Amino acid sequence: MKAPSFAEDHISQVPALQLLMKLGYQYLPPAKLHAARGEKTSAVLLEEILEQQLHRINHIDFRGEQFKFSSANIYQAVQALKDFPLKDGIGVTNEKVYSLLTLGKSFEETLGGDKKSYSLRYIDWENPENNVYHITAEMDVARTGSHQCRRPDIVLFVNGIPFVVIECKRPDLASGKNIPPHEQAISQHLRNQHEEEIPGLFIYAQMLLALSANDAWYGTVGTPTEFWAKWKEPANNWKALEKLKNAPLSESQNDALYTEPFQLMRPYFASQTGLEMQLTEQDRLLYALCRPERLLELVFRFMVFDNGTRKVARYQQYFAVQKAMKRIAHFDEGRRRGGVIWHTQGSGKSLTMVMLAKAIALDKNIRNPRIVLVTDRVDLDDQIYNTFDACDMEPIQAKTGRHLSELINQDKSAIITTLLQKFKAAVKKGKAENDSSEIFVLVDESHRSHYGEANLNLQRVFPNACYIGFTGTPLTKKEKNTAAKFGGIIDPYTIDQAVEDKAVVPLLYEGRHVVQEINKSAIDNYFDMISEPLNEYQRADLKKKFSRADQLNEADQKIWRTAWDISQHYKSTWQKTPFKGQLTAPSKAAALKYKAYLDDIKLITSEVIISGPDTREGYDDAYNDPNDEVVKFWNTMMKKHGNERSYNRNIINAFKHDDHPEIIIVVDKLLTGFDAPRNIVLYVCRSLKEHTLLQAIARVNRLYEGKDYGYIIDYYGILGELDEALNTYSSLDEFDEDDLKGTLTNVKEEVEKLPQKHAHLWDLFKSVKNKNDIEALELFLAPQDLRDGFYERLSDFARTLKMALSTLGFLEQAGEQKVEQYKEDAKFFLKLRVSVKRRYSDSIDYRQYEKQIQKLIDTHITSDEVIQITESVNIFNREDFQKEVEKVEGKAARADMIATRTAKTISENMDEDPVFFRKFSRLLQDTIDAFHDKRMSEASYLKEAMDIMNKVQNRSDGTEPEVLQGKLVATAFYRIVQSEIAELDSERSAEIGLRVDDIIRANKIVDWERKEDVKNRMKQTIEDYLYDLRNEGVELTFDQIDEIIESVMGVALKHYV
Predict the structure, then answer these.
(1) Which CATH class is domain 313-500?
(2) What is the CATH number of domain 507-745?
(3) Phi, psi of 440 (to 5 degrees)
(4) Percent of residues, the chain, with pLDDT higher than 90
């Protein structure tokens, strides 16, 4: 038996195809697929299969008989699915396709002399066995405006419609950036959705998978990398899969699979027949998501478009809804059973509510269901309403108790959102009662309202309703006992699980309440400590501010000192990055003082969000203006914004989307139900307990690009130094210890990893003998994988150093000498990074951590020169590029920079003149190889690199006929002809190139690249011209004619679109 192979097709792609075939998918080899697509690489629908299925699964019931749709209507249905222009973007178009697939389309038919509209389905969602399922591998899909193709590893079709696109990677796939194979697969998916790639395939895709044997993830169209997810199921769910995996394919299935491109693999997989194979994560994901009945269920019932962003259920959302639906199917004393869904905050609780509501609405066993969504806060009510509205669930928001009564007594409103408090008013009216058992009351943050007195009014209004509570925090021991009476926990999804699944970021805790404990006698020491890095002018300005603070009363001094520390901490850690902060104050008055002192210090920007004051507050008599600062502030805000809702909306939107404010100051508002992914740090300046504490800290656990952690900076001392189990603190002692696992980690634990990351960075260069020789270090980093490894290790070290330098006790713990070494090494390696990126023309990845690294440089590392990476200058910008070259020292380094930048330019422009650029690409690679193999001197290397660059800049090798001067496109066509008909003289080739250019220009119109008839006319005219040349004696084969036309169209699409 041959040794196991780690090749991608052996370990991932073919095993995936085998399992999918066992799940009921028919394999279409590339040749059959090409025929099913009308032999067009731009076509992604299998139209013949689709047409057959539309005839098969659709019928019209009319007067006791069944009739088929006319062929004309079937044709129109295919065209309706086929004709989706991409002008609105891939996301909008994908949503339109989803609507068509799930809702179907109406067509007029005349039956018995009666003309009516009847609905036609593309998929039989209720009976999966009525659909047909196909798979293929290495499907060539033409890129937009190019003759080049992309090849997704696997595509799954339902009724001829591409439903699932899969990228496979070998698990040992090397990447110097330490990027896991599945992330490389995700990156491929994201690239392929770009406008210039293959969006025409992805507008139909319902699910995307990234597979790598034991690492498998899923997402959908538009899902950013950080929101891709794994799928988990109970272990006993895999028994059927184990049996299926070890069952052999039939002979006919093997014959179909082991054709091109897999024909040579048949002996390898045949040798495994009869041997027991263990399940991989890839197997589990394919079985969980792609077996036909589950795939259709997920697409139809568990997909939502949230403000245009497509989202698919995570496993905890899917199983919570399934468990809830099983629960509500049972009745106790005339009412459906309910319970509580506890899904930790940030894990998609609101969308779980949407999916449950959708499942209830689609359940055929529930007649005329009505869903009432209840919370106890205006901001949460708005959030729930907006979430449902954004997902096209058409809710109605009860504006008053009277309005609620009207909605309750009408049978029209399927989904109502309201506040718990409005039920009191509705009960007082005496007419608000609906005893239907088909009413489902979904209560958000139910720990506050589901079990107390407030619930009595709900029970009076809906005596027979099914009650389902949702909570983002664990239930206390007491609440668990009470919840049992209402059906108990339906589904838990703990903080620990969410962190493990990367549904939220982990939270780091730092106790900084020592800042508050500085007494008056120690104020000068404190001043010396924080002013040490400042110059004399800055120290004088700070002293002035401190003297002002000294005149405040003790309570206000504490607020001022905390405001100063927050200003310094945020400025040095997060300012000028994408991230924001939130400060929670003990009262409205304190919130305004924090705002005043932050403004006074002038280091950061802030805004205050509070609820309106009691209208009786702040007035001494009936004639004067209010003297209370809160009332004055509120009146100012109302004048500025118009009303409370606009005030909240404007500031929250600015916080979420604009550069300012950097900090938002709150008391109780926005401690729950506030979802701002850029929010990275919570400054705690007040007492928080139990649910309020857990809800508050979850404000900073949302996923965002480049966000490793959320930070809790505690100035109040709610958890001291966090050196014990969380449930030993009085603020959280009502919770069970297991329910709090993974909630917070002391920041010290992460800072302690700094020495290891520092050593790991230096370890990369262990084979370089003289580490003081910068040229030796740069030459060592010539291979791309080593450079990627260097960038990743440096980024990891720099981010951890930045975190350490922002914590209060790091300098004291590590020692001044060690801290200086870290900073000096960071400075050195960051300079090396700039030099290496410039030398090898590496593109800059701003995606993740670049701004955080720049923040470290700006704040903590002083330098005699700017350590900053700028975008590479294009070689066609000759003057600027020459200036950049002059910054590089040494002939070899300059040659490397010129060569790599030229190679990049060639790659970017390849389609504009493929024959020319392919020639110089080969010449350039030969030159680079000759130098690095020590077959060429530095001086020769620099001379050759400059010579090639000059020819690429001029788009000329000096051999073109004069008649082509200044005619770039015609010259590219000339080269295509020359490459195909080598014996033809250059003058005749130039004449042909010019004539082909005339044909293209004569036929092109607006949006010609999207019009098949125009492109076909161009091709036909060129073909006729080339046939005439053939008849005139030019030696041209049919294959050469086809090749010339294909290449010409590719160049035309690059130049004339």
Answers:
(1) alpha beta
(2) 3.40.50.300
(3) -120, 115
(4) 23
